[in-house]
Design goal:
Layout: H1 9-21, H2 30-40, E1 47-49, E2 56-61, E3 64-74, H3 101-117, E4 123-131, H4 140-146, E5 155-166, E6 169-172, E7 175-178, E8 180-189, E9 193-194, H5 204-215, H6 218-222, E10 229-238, E11 244-245, E12 248-257, H7 260-281, E13 284-290, E14 296-298, H8 300-313, E15 318-321, E16 340-348, H9 368-384
Helix pairs in contact: 1-3, 3-9, 5-7, 8-9
Length: about 375
Amino acid sequence: MDVRKLVNVEQVVKWRRHFHMYPEIAFKEYETSNYIVKELASYPEIEVLRPTETSVVAVLKGAKPGKTVGLRADFDALPIEEEADVEFKSKNPGVMHSCGHDCHAAMLLGAVDVLYGLRNDLSGTVKFIFQHAEEVEPGGAKQIIETGVLDDVDAFYGSHVSGEDPAGVILVASGPVYANADLFSIKLKGKGAHAARPDASIDTLLVGTEVVQALNYIVSRNISSAERAVLTVGMFHAGTADNIIPDTAAIGGTVRTYKPEIRDLMERRISEVTEGICSAYGASCDVNYVRGYSAVINDNKLYTMVKEIAADVLPDVNVKEMQPIMGGEDFSAYGKIAPAFFSGIGAKPNTIEHYGHHHPKFTIDEASLPIGTTMYAAFVLRVLGGE
């Protein structure tokens, strides 16, 4: 069966452009989710569930019993004013689909359309997961899972458009794909004084600079070069005037790791380093480490299967090994229920200039849409039959 020929490309593009014009930020995707429900009404044998306020799970049962497959697409946008020169530019000021989640939702609707037409050939059930709030903790995946609506899923598949690879490329990997993504914040307390009397102070600006510098040595001096870890300080606030030594300071940043033991080490060392420096200067500190999304680990058996699927249904597509990314993805939550696989779909625009994800001029090549839709549908057909 040539699955790709079953994709209604014109409709998938139409869906994508609608989502792009009406973006909504995480946990506020009311119109987006309602639109998805409205479109699903065209498929009367599909059961539509609303596990949370702004998520949708569509359930399609095949003609015979069998396994259950979960297909996931996120659809939240970002608080960015769009600068891309496209005819379907965002109509919501200050909000933009600058990460490609509009593509994911459209591709999954496309998969609904394909698989609905093949429902009599399926042995099992498909759960199409239209997920809210991937961009913001605690993440939509966790909230949907906590409702129990996905407890019976035997395998999950998801994908993300890649702005670094052209349309016609599918990115796959076995093992780690996205990292554990954690946050830390540090509050320093010292003693303020006049700028002319530093001897009367406990200078938190000085203490803070020592802390920031020392934190940046943790990876190079405590983590083996064979491991992967990234610590980034992104925020440092101290002082309100040029002639006052501040009595407080605030530092914030992120930590990216893959292995649980490295994650534990990073959390411990941030506290030890900060507390040691504060003790040396007579300051006090409050260190808060927040564990965010866990690492996305692709199942090895599904890795082999997805490569075979891509070669079978998209023989003209280049299947490329994906390098692990230090960014975070809450797709990891699904992998705690059942084997899961997350792929990349090349979508880099065919233009001289292109801009990365989360940039106000981010665009994609819409030739990627039928490829992503085909992979969604083909994954189900391989697991449930109907090929």
